[in-house]
Every structure is written in structure tokens, then in C-alpha cells.
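Example record

One chain of 112 residues, shown exactly as stored in the release files.
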Amino acid sequence: MKLATVRPYRKHRHDPFFNLMDDFFKAPSKTHIPVNIIEFDDRFELHLAAPGFAKDNFQLEVKDDHLFVHFTPPEAKEEVKYQRKEFGFGPFERSWKLNDAIDVESIKAKYD
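Predicted C-alpha cells for this chain:
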């Protein structure tokens, strides 16, 4: 028996019709926040690019050998009628597997 890899999206990714259908039927996407991980001799630093996001809406969690960064946006204060909306900020979660060399008790967070 031969297994085939099917990638239907790649075949049509530049086709305007399929892009329109993808935009129409896709589920709301989560916000993706880019991260840089810097390795020093004695530590790692994770820098998240999240300008305009309030410190109080972030949570850090260490669970099952993973570091999680959660963001929950505040509730909207008023109903807004958009003429066009091309960006928005939804909740997000990023996680990283921690190896045995990481001392989870010494994990700290700083918001600059």
C-alpha cells in the first residue's frame, strides 16, 4: 500500500478564488506574537514583540516541563462599528519545552 501526501492548499495558494474562500470560511485566528530567544552563559531570555499589550493581561505558567506565556485581552468597553477591520488582538498562548538544565524555580518575568 502506498501513502500519498496531499497538500491541497499549496497547489492553490496564489489562486484568488481559493484565497477568497479561505478568508470566508476560516476560523478566527489567534494572535501570533513573535519571540526571540537569546542564550547567555548563565540564562536564556525570551523577548516577545507585543507593543501596546498591557502587563496585567499576561500570565506565565510552568506546567509539565513547559513554560507557557498567556495573553488575554481586556473586555471591549464599547461596541464599535468598523467600516473596515484589518487587525485585531485576540488571546494567545506560546509555549516552550524546558529541558533538565533549566531551573524552573529561577524563572523570572520582566515587562519593559
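Notes: The longest strand covers residues 58-63.
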